[in-house]
Amino acid sequence: MLIDHNYEPIAAGSYDWENQLENGIWTYSLDEIWKGLQSSYGQLVDVVSAEYETTLTTIGAIGFSAMMHGYLAFDQDDELLVPFRTWRNAITTEAEAKLSKAFHYTIPQRWSIAHLYQAILNKETHLKDLSYFTTLAGYIHWQLTGQKVLGVGDASGMFPIDRQTKGYDVQKIAIFDQLAQAEGFMQSLETLLPEIRLAGEVAGTLTEKGAKLLDLSGNLSAGIPVCPPEGDAGTGMVATNSVGLRTGNVSAGTSAFAMIVLDKELVNIHPEIDQVTTPDGSPVAMVHTNNCSSEINAWVKIFKEFSESLGVTIDTQQIYETLFLKALQGDGDCGGLLSYGYHSGENITKMEQGRPLFVRQPDSKFDLANFMRMHLSSAFGAMRLGMEILKSEQVTIDRLVAHGGIFKTPKVAQTILASAMEAPVTVMETAGEGGAWGIALLAAYLQAAEAMTLEEFLAKDVFSTSEGLTIEPTEEDLSGYERFIELYEKGLPIEASAIVSMEEGVREC
């Protein structure tokens, strides 16, 4: 995404991709990563050429954002040692338990350090050659700038951050080294992690090699300043003006997460709650769910295939809008229908694998409106259970903003989310812009960082005239969603049984 001096998007490019399950591992190939990035940038260049009759050769500043967590491991020759293990994997149960206990700090399965420690526990042979590991955004940034660095928000999903120094927690590094050495892994963790940069700090410049790698036309110049790479959580906070204390945002896509900037420490350690940071290092409680819109997307494809089978061509976005608007006609409790859109394991509900599932009783009110409302309600189901934990910690939220593609159809997902969160939810006009816009704003902040904080920059320069629609949940919607979530919790054993039964069925075949 390209923005102008008013921070408004003026050109964009996109590429659709999904996690691939290969040999039991959720992954992306490096070839697919570069194909997607180059295709997206190429589309952006074409828009600039068509709309403004100019060739894009330089940019004020650039930033890269991607999914958080995961495991990209390289040797001293910068060769990838094992296929990229994304956040979606739930294969680090033992590491999660041992690290969380040793640190007295929640280390979720998807965190990079959990992947590394699990590999150590598994005695994986690639570890003898390990020289560096990072996240997807860190990898892209490294290849285009030569700098092995990471924004503090993304880094906080690799390893715990010291809230005073805003660097890695050195005491926990020492604990990890002791644990690793006991397993025969003698390298110091400190030598393997990317260096941390805060929002507003220059994190390198685009190299000649990087410019050619990004822009296949060869027109892009080297030397462009690049901001610290960030994860999708951090850019979501920026894109919703939610970096100040007691502000919160919900980012919803393939996965979903609620981010609440804390004004006090959590009293207890909760396995379901991540503790990460904003891009400028403020503490954040994160309720992360591995699954959100994937099952909705799958059903939209079915409806599109059906219409095409009838010889009718309907734009995909129109199908989404039609089905979403129908959901508002459904009952608050979804007519007794129940689904789990689990394409992968889900930490909050303790599911190690995913089995997308739809179930109903014979007398449930099965119609299209309830069917779609059920899928939207279920998309936020695990998040609702996580938010109940934060309520028990008396976490205060002054403002909650939502963004992501699921909110493009006005009012629909927003209405259901407000019921799930039991709080007013605001969606801005920029709700569909997401992480690409957020990282563009962080790149623009490079020029303003000396004069103001990130919170001031967003409030005064970017969002001062921004308008948004706020929806408060009605009593009817609240009570309806309460009935749905009760059924959702009671039905979790069905999902657990499906994981076991379908896995056994595959083995027998």
Task: Describe the fold and architecture.
The chain is of the alpha/beta class and 509 residues long. It folds into three domains: 2-230, ATPase, nucleotide binding domain (Nucleotidyltransferase, domain 5); 232-291 and 383-471, ATPase, nucleotide binding domain (Nucleotidyltransferase, domain 5); 294-379 and 475-508, no CATH class. The chain is 39% helix and 14% strand. The chain is built from 17 helices and 19 strands. It has helices at residues 30-52, 93-103, 112-121, 136-145, 152-155, 170-182, 208-214, 232-239, 294-309, 316-327, 368-379, 381-392, 412-421, 434-444, 454-462, 475-490, 492-508, and strands spanning 2-3, 9-11, 20-22, 25-27, 65-66, 72-74, 132-134, 149-151, 195-197, 230-231, 247-252, 256-261, 273-277, 283-289, 338-340, 357-359, 399-403, 425-428, 468-471. Strands 13-14-12-11-17-18-19 form a seven-stranded mixed β-sheet, with helices on both faces. Strands 1-2 form a two-stranded antiparallel sheet. A two-stranded antiparallel sheet has the order 3-4. Helix 8 packs across helix 14 (434-444), helix 10 (316-327) crosses helix 11 and helix 13 (412-421) crosses helix 16 (475-490). The protein is globular and about 60 Å long. The termini are far apart. The model has no long low-confidence stretch (mean pLDDT 93).
* Mean pLDDT metric: 93
Strand order of the largest sheet: 13-14-12-11-17-18-19
Q: Which residue ranges are poorly predicted, with pLDDT under 50 across at least 5 consecutive positions?
A: none
Structural class: alpha/beta
CATH superfamily of the largest domain: ATPase, nucleotide binding domain
Q: N- to C-terminal separation?
A: 47 Å
H/I helix tally: 17
Number of domains: 3
Architecture of the largest domain, according to CATH?
A: 2-Layer Sandwich
Number of distinct beta strands: 19
| Radius of gyration from the alpha-carbon trace, in angstroms | 22 Å
**Global outline:** globular
Described by strand count, sense and barrel closure, the largest sheet is: 7 strands, mixed
Q: Indicate the CATH class of the largest domain.
A: Alpha Beta
